[in-house]
Amino acid sequence: MRIAFELSGEHQTLPRSEVLGCLTSTGIPFKEIATLDQVLIIEIDEMPPIAKRLAMTHHILEVIDMCQVSPQRDSNTNMELITAMVSASDLPLGNEKTFCVRAKIIKNYTYETSTLERDIGAIIYKRGYRVNLENPDVVFRLVITGDKCIFGRLLFSIDRHQYESRRPHLKPFFYPGALLPGVARTIVNISSVRPGELLLDPFCGTGGILIEAGLTGVNCLGMDVQRKMVQGTATNFQHYDIGGELIIGDACNIGLADSSVDAIVTDIPYGRSTLYMAQSLQDLYVKSLKEMCRVLKPGKNAVIVSQIPMGAIGEDVGFKVLECHQQRVHKSLTRHIIILIKR
Ligand SMILES: C[S@@+](CC[C@H](N)C(=O)[O-])C[C@H]1O[C@@H](n2cnc3c(N)ncnc32)[C@H](O)[C@@H]1O
């Protein structure tokens, strides 16, 4: 089946990587068909249950058909193409079923989504199906992005409000500098960690990353050099009913056996607002990355958030860089998010 992920526009590259990381973690083979603006299309035999894990996806569709459109063409010509596609498509609806149409236009097109929904709804209606805008059996979605119009059946909508409710200052233990839960969940997913596997955050702070991992069924192991952070994370764990292990310790000297953890996801100190325990920031980065590489199993991933690019240090200590993302937080803070694999 062909699946389209309607991605959040909050970041250019992270939403796609999150979906690919989640799919990879299931072990089910899939093929990437296209990456369009805010849409990723894949081919897979059956859709794995990853919708509840995702943070930077809005909707997941089973693609019924796609057609070529162009923002340069006049809107009537595009509309004729879309109409022809919907009229000819094989609809997954019996006579008893009700439907509604929802449309999303990503950029550059002048249609009103409500007009598009009404016009396409009329075509499906003429084919003998009943409209129900309140509680339809099937929701059809039309997504216009770049030079494609995707027509699909809605499989899942992601509940993104849950991330709002876990914002750092709403947790029982709060300390400034924590990542937003949507970002924390995304980087956990990018690591391709599976439920039941062990994820280490050696700079756990208030536990924001571990909480997002724990809520997806991953086993959590947190470390921080400050006792108050470890105690605070324990309080937050209790609040969200997460049963991980927490250690007061130095990330430059992790007391774990070689190749003993399945994933590392961490937000390392930047030195500006967060305290760090090392001779210098450079020393902290080199020693902690070396330790992370030692305790990670070969072939597994580390996702590291930092304020400077860490790829060169990662390569020096035995990782291979898979991806680098940048996220501008404000004028004087750009986050670098790198994905490393232990060779
Ligand atoms: C950027 S904060 C992590 C924020 C975290 N992601 C959260 O959700 O709160 C970095 C943390 O690293 C800890 N830290 C600094 N030096 C350390 C070291 N050598 N070993 C372990 N933790 C250290 C600090 O105490 C701080 O809590």
3D architecture notes:
The chain is of the alpha/beta class. The protein folds into two domains: 2-157, VC0802-like (2-Layer Sandwich), CATH 3.30.2130.30; 165-342, Rossmann fold (3-Layer(aba) Sandwich), CATH 3.40.50. The protein has helices spanning 14-26, 75-88, 113-126, 161-165, 181-190, 208-215, 227-239, 281-295, 311-317; strands spanning 2-7, 30-36, 39-44, 57-68, 98-105, 130-131, 138-145, 148-157, 198-201, 219-224, 245-248, 261-267, 296-306, 319-330, 333-342. The radius of gyration is 23 Å and the shape is elongated.
Strand order of the largest sheet: 2-3-1-4-8-7-5-6
- Helical content (DSSP H or I, runs of 4+): 25-40%
Cα-atom radius of gyration: 23 Å
Mean pLDDT: 94
Structural class: alpha/beta
Total separate domains? 2
Strand content: 25-35%
Intertermini distance: 33 Å
Question: What is CATH's topology name of the largest domain?
Answer: Rossmann fold
Main beta sheet strand tally, sense and closure = 8 strands, mixed
Per DSSP, the total helix count is 9
Bound ligands: S-adenosylmethionine
Number of strands: 15
Q: Indicate the CATH class of the largest domain.
A: Alpha Beta
What is the global morphology?
elongated
